[in-house]
Design a protein that fits this description.
By secondary structure, the chain is α+β, with helices and mostly antiparallel strands. The protein has one domain: NE1680-like fold (Roll). It contains three helices and six strands, in the order E-E-H-E-E-E-H-E-H. A four-stranded antiparallel beta sheet has the order 3-1-2-6. Strands 4-5 form a two-stranded antiparallel sheet. Strand 1 and strand 2 form a beta hairpin. It is elongated, with a radius of gyration of 18 Å. It starts with a strand and ends in an 11-residue tail after the last helix. This is YcgL domain-containing protein GCM10007852_05750. It holds the Pfam family YcgL. InterPro entries: YcgL-like_sf, YcgL_dom. It comes from Agaribacter marinus.
């Protein structure tokens, strides 16, 4: 299956996968407004990849076929200070009053 991949200028590390190049008819209007003007990146054959958009090939194809598009969001950035505080039995956010 071929997919056209687009990046967002509004949202860093956010990509949109669609069935056909320049065909956004299956993508909800609200999502396109938030995504901004799609910038074409590449046309890929998902059948030749073991993983696509950070997912196993079979998972990507299943999700893509459900909606006829796929939105790849950036990975969540781990808050190391929060993890350290929780590991030490403290609140996520310190009680600091200035």
């Amino acid at each position: 299956m071929l997919c056209a991949v687009y990046k967002s200028l509004k949202k860093a590390d956010t990509f949109l996968y669609v069935e056909k190049r320049d065909d956004f008819s299956k993508v909800p209007k609200g999502l396109l407004e938030t995504f901004g003007t799609p910038i074409f990146v590449i046309l890929i054959n998902t059948e030749k990849k073991t993983s696509v958009a950070g997912l196993a090939q079979s998972d990507f194809i299943r999700k893509f076929e459900e909606n006829k598009f796929y939105l790849q969001l950036p990975p969540k950035i781990e808050d190391l200070m929060e993890a350290h505080r929780l590991a030490n039995g403290l609140d996520k956010v310190p009680d600091v009053k200035f």
